[in-house]
Amino acid sequence: MTSSDARREWLPPVAELLSLPAELKQAVPPEYEDLNGHMNIQHYFELQSLAVWGVFRRIGYEHAQRPHEGAFTLEQHLRYHNEVLVGQEVSAHVVLLERTDKVVRGVSFLVNRTTEQVANTLEFVSANVDLSVRRTSPFPERIADALDAELARCAHLGGITTPGPPRLR
């Protein structure tokens, strides 16, 4: 097994990811292409960020409704597994992995629906923030309950354990 294969073996099967709601789904437009002939890295990150914020909005982070509540990203790890080409269809699926009273950890999977491969992943750690003092604070009960429902929705994936950063040789 190559080191590349070892870094990919933690990925759930595409069929299981596709059983989750798609936070976004689109064909890759020509303006996303880079000089190497595949989707530019900025667009992998953009699509993944939109997907994660889609989940956060769904669980209750609506600035207009609660201007003093928000979430700050504390950590992100972006991994590229398979390339995406112009015209191919992608979707993003977010899996929450765990939470504490203030912090949530998850991973978003960008699936290339055309090739039926995971294109990339964005692991994230985000904290609930009281924007009036700009400090972490416990999740409000309604958001904690929504996070728990999301965690339960993803439980069938069997507890994804993401790898640490790749080692350089």
TrEMBL record:
It comes from the Bacteria. Gene3D superfamilies: Hotdog Thioesterase. This is Thioesterase family protein. It comes from Haloechinothrix salitolerans. The lineage of its organism: Bacteria, Bacillati, Actinomycetota, Actinomycetes, Pseudonocardiales.
